[in-house]
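Reply to dn_fold:

You asked what the input looked like. This is it:
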Amino acid sequence: MVQLSGSLKQSIQYFNKILFSRAARPLRFVCTGGLAAIIQLGLLNTLIAKGWESATANVVSFLLSAQVNFLMSFFFTWRDRQPASDAQAMHVLFSRWLKFHSSIVFTALLNQIVFIAARSFIPALLASALGIGVASLVNFFTMNTLVFRPKMTSVQLLYPTEMKKPEMKVMNDRQPEEENV
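and this is what came back:
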């Protein structure tokens, strides 16, 4: 097994801390979406070259790349929002898979509408890339707030406004006495 030097190990840990920070989520989203887009465009190009009609080829390419997009989103982009236990993992994975595909129905339609409209005056790959770009803007908001939203605690669900109140501070050293009830 390869041993890493202390400074290299610290550098890797620092890089991971930055890469998987909340602030870097848009960057991870772009990487995930970029990979899915490359897969979609590659499949589209291959299917059109095989004689498929471009609109049908675009739908099939979109559906197949969506599976890669979901897995990368689950395990990479929103990895910090994973279930707390292995017992919940399969349920959460399946639940998010259903939510993901339900949410992309709209963006798939948006993607296809942009593709068909743009296809009349630009090449298929550019039209598809345009559709991907427009749909991705909607996707980030939807994925972040609905599909991969952080799990709320039962206290946050019951008392959402209570969680926002500032803590009360005791101004003197004496602690409040307990009441005998």
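The helical segments are 6-19, 25-49, 54-77, 86-119, 124-147, 154-158.
Hope that clears it up.
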